[in-house]
């Protein structure tokens, strides 16, 4: 059995620190998912919109102002190539964004489940601590207070004083 297989079976090792054993398509699928998220995140930035706007403006400007021999997408025909490029970009952008959203939904589901489990543990811990506090309060009520101990000590001292007085009287009568 390979060392990576043994390490992968250790349950005390956090999953993130284990050496990953690639399963068929697993790492490629995850790599593709991460790539789609990076692309989707990039498409949602102002820099992407600014870059796309500049690209379209330069494309239109070049194909309008440049000499006819240098133009590759004529304005007379309605910038057909530009339309195709933007359609192609949009046709890939939508599924990439959906893939990224699905991965985020999966992460959110896992996070919600972990939060629910943590809340249940916190509730159980809180209930346990509340029961312990009640038990301590009951135990403290059964403990002797300072006043009770003082009163008992006074009674013992009075009893000792009384015995002492009786012994002194008995000693005086004996003489």
Question: How is this fold's topology laid out?
Answer:
Layout (H helix, E strand, L loop, with lengths): L2 H6 L17 H18 L2 H20 L14 H63 L3 H29 L1
Helix pairs in contact: 2-4
Pfam families: DUF1003
Keywords: Coiled coil, Membrane, Transmembrane, Transmembrane helix
Protein name: DUF1003 domain-containing protein
Structure write-up:
This protein has helices at 3-8, 26-43, 46-65, 80-142, 146-174. It has 175 residues and is an all-alpha fold. It is rod-shaped. The protein folds into two domains: 35-143; 146-175. 78% of the residues lie in helices and 0% in strands. It has five helices and no strands. The mean pLDDT is 84.
The radius of gyration computed from the alpha-carbon positions, rounded to a whole number of angstroms, is 42 Å
Indicate the mean pLDDT.
Answer: 84
Order of helices and strands: HHHHH
Low-confidence sequence ranges: none
> What is the SS-derived class?
mainly alpha
Number of discrete helical segments: 5
> Approximately how much helix is present in the residues?
over 70%
How far apart, in Å, are the first and last alpha carbons? Answer: 102 Å
Indicate the proportion of strand residues.
Answer: under 5%
The count of DSSP E runs of length 2 or more, i.e. the number of strands, is 0
Global morphology = rod-shaped
- Summed up, the domain count is 2
The main sheet comes to: none
InterPro entries: DUF1003
Region (Disordered): 1-29
Organism: Agromyces intestinalis
Pfam family, one: DUF1003
């Amino acid at each position: 059995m390979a060392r990576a297989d043994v390490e992968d079976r250790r349950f005390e090792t956090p999953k993130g620190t284990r050496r990953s054993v690639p399963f068929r398509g697993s790492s490629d699928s995850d790599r593709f998912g991460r790539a789609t998220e990076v692309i989707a995140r990039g498409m949602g930035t102002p820099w992407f919109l600014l870059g796309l706007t500049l690209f379209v403006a330069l494309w239109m400007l070049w194909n309008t102002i440049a000499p006819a021999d240098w133009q590759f997408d004529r304005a007379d025909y309605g910038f057909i190539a530009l339309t195709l490029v933007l359609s192609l970009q949009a046709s890939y952008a939508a599924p990439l964004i959906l893939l990224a959203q699905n991965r985020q939904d999966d992460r959110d589901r896992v996070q919600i489940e972990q939060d629910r489990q943590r809340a249940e543990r916190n509730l159980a811990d809180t209930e346990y601590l509340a029961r312990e506090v009640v038990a301590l309060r009951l135990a403290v009520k059964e403990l002797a207070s300072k006043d009770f101990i003082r009163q008992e000590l006074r009674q013992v001292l009075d009893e000792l004083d009384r015995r002492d007085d009786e012994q002194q009287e008995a000693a005086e009568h004996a003489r």
